Amino acid sequence: xxxxxxxKSILIIGSGPIVIGQACEFDYSGTQALRSLxxxxxxxxxxxxxxxxxxxxxxxxxxxxxxxxTTKSLVKxxxxxxxxxxxxxxxxxxxxxxxxIEADEKGIWNDFGVEIIGVDIDAINITEDREKFRELMLKIxxxxxxxxxxxxxxxxxxxxxxxxxxxxxxxxxxxGGAGASIVYKEEDFDDxxxxxxxxxxxxEVMIDKALMGWKEYELELLRDANDNVVIICxxxxxxxxxxxxxxxxxxxxxxxxxxKTYQRMRDMAIHMMRSIGDFAGGCNVQFxxxxxxxxxxxxxxxxxxxxxxxxxxxxxxxxxxxxxAAKLAIGYHLDELENQITKSTSALFEPTLDYxxxxxxxxxxxxxxxxxxxxxxxxxxxxxxxxxGRSFQEALHKxxxxxxxxxxxxxxDGKGYTNYDQIIEKLTYASWDRVFVIYDAIQMGIPLSxxxxxxxxxxxxxxxxxxxxxxxxEISTYKINSIQKDLLLEAKQKGYGDRQIAHMLGCLxxxxxxxxxxxxxxRVYKLVDTCAAEFKAKTPYYYSTFENDVExxxxxxxxxxESVVSDKKKIIVLGSGPNRIGQGIEFDYCxxxxxxxxxxxxxxxxMINCNPETVSTDFDTADKLYFEPVFWEHIYDIIKxxxxxxxxxxxxxxxxxKLAEKLDRYGIKxxxxxxxxxxxxxxxxxxxxxxxxxxxxxxxxxxxxxxEQALAVSDKLDFPILVRPSYVLGGQGMKxxxxxxxxxxxxxxxxxxxxxxxxxxxxxxDGAIEAEADAICDGENxxxxxxxxxxxxxxxxxxxxxxxxxxxxxxxxxxxxxxxxTKKIALALNTVGLINIQFAIKDDIVYIIEANPRASRTVPFxxxxxxxxxxxxxxxxxxGEKKVTDFNFNPQLKGYAIKQPVFSFxxxxxxxxxxxxxxxxxxxxxxxxxxxxxxxxxxxxxxxQMYLSK
Length: 950
Hints:
The protein is α+β, with helices and mostly antiparallel strands and 950 residues long. It is 35% helix and 20% strand. The longest helix is centred in the first third of the chain and has 18 residues, at 259-276. Keywords: Amino-acid biosynthesis, Arginine biosynthesis, ATP-binding, Ligase, Magnesium, Manganese, Metal-binding, Nucleotide-binding, Pyrimidine biosynthesis, Repeat. It holds the Pfam family CPSase_L_D1.
């Protein structure tokens, strides 16, 4: 059946600000859904409060409402758009579903004659209400762990007495496993039960007998209105049950599942999906499998919506789940839709992977002082990376190289743990770095059987690790001159980086690179084609690998490279890697707009990124996507292969910026602001000299490289002193100290975690107002796109501050200084593209805190507030296609826009929630107010006093 012709206008609910448990994967799915509906001529209306996303870009939907996700906002939209026929709530995670249910309970959809599509409310209620779900599963014959529901403390105690320990407590209707925990000991039960009951919006928990050591699997399904069901992807968690899937290392396709058990699991998943309701769309089902030869299967849960894993499954398989799910929601059947990759076969097919993907989460525990770093049922990671390789080992190495935590892959970098007790402890209590600790344990000689006994990780994965370690040992017996081609090729095929091989051989990374070139051990690129090359793919979505040469009949040898280089002029955009605090979705927004602007200027666009949650890694955003680590070796090989005009680094946050020095050293053109200028802004000494020459005030400062130097500097500067390291992200390691003892302790701690760093000590301007400006500069002209005043005082990181656009409390004298300083600095730094400058204002004097000649966190916020495509303009300036004076700037904003940070402290108990110079927020929302008398502004401003009081 073709699409439902009655549907002319559809409301899509977004997922709001990014929090732990709900990140930019829903920006990706929402963006895909919007594009998919517009292809069919359907009017789209979007509500979402997150200004940093592509989804809320004016070009994405016909009507975008940047409003709080409340039923009050829904009523406002439905009154303004009486033509809305249906609501699609499955693209905005748990937030969108919860809002849809609330509106349904209040009768809002009925009042406005709006149909719910893509999901069935009864299906949501069944899957979220753990008791109803359990009853249904028993009815249809799907096994579940022994479990019972408790709606009170007393009921919970009775269940625990019946089941015994260990137990699992899961709170109903929560996000990212909030309120869930494993209880090993009776004495911990009371606290954890109370917490689960409090966190659940309906004050209900499900208590399960813990299936410790069972293996965990996820299946991604799609179903149409004709009851056709396809399984898009099977994902195996390397970690056994007990760790939230969002915090688990996951692998696709499943590696240790027998075919017989897989078929049983498939049938069970399809049976479950059909039994929960009559809806067309996506579904995610999770199972546990016993680790013995019986392979008993138990259902854990089912999510009748696009989930976090759907984004991963889409990128892993090349099958755009959200795009197809949106089509199914409006009535299409799978056999009527085309396979987006081959463009010649139908969407009613199950992808085949002739490669392996490994996803590793990215954590930010350093931002949550005092947090429990043990992983469990409540998700704690802030982002993720994905590696694609021809084998599990290669994909695992590529994923670890993508994490950006100063590791070069598994082992072979001298950074592993060497203390036996510490390794056993880290294996026993799963922590964020266990992916490396397993390698360290094998290196130390701890038997695989012991590692398996502690971690319950399947022996197949542990043997893969052991095999890697044996290879490292073998390579370490050679020197760079004596290593043979076959051994070097094997190391590269198993994912070892040149830096790691250099560590094993005791030589330089560049020597390994030269040796590879000499021996002809070169990367080749393969297509992600969804059908294991059975049909010809039209999609330019690539990953790298190493292959043995094939010898042709004529004696010619070659390795097959599927990435064909065109003769068009090309631009590479470096992505921002995994999401983390300080570098989130806003840089993905900038990268996507950079790609689109370069395409408008006639360039072939090439995107390099390794984050599966993002729009930049959608296979039809750029002309070519290389899903590769944003890691020097990988980038350099792509540049050598593609020979672009240059590389854009200023849109991908600190990740891309850190590679500027290497690009410059290797003679690769950096598009826009040069490396010299980028480095000058980062080097506090040189930058302050530049300010001095231009008569621009800055707080008194000095530089220290040891605790002794820092103490000597403190005699010249008055306390309080702001201590900050160089070249860090999101204010990492920044702290305000008020005496010598605090200063010494902090400097010693900092230099232990970031050895050899230059520390900047500033006299902290106590009680100053903070402001920031973003501007576009072409080297001659400067246009300030926005000036924001922070409601919190100077000393709270700009990412954690409520920022008001335009400023609400700065006089003409101060505003003029901000404008003058911004223009002077942008020109003095020879900026070509974007620049962000932060100011401290005290006694009507404007001091400079720092300048970043790159896209900043606030650029998307200003673009949304003023309704102007600033990244598009800035990219055209970087490419030299346009001057600032060529644009007709016309910002539109009635009243004020406030950027409001959102925190995920609820995921960490007993953590220090105090704000300071180190950023802690995970996301942001935008609030529009007509004037300063607005209650919300008044409440925010009243809280300012809390920070200012001594």
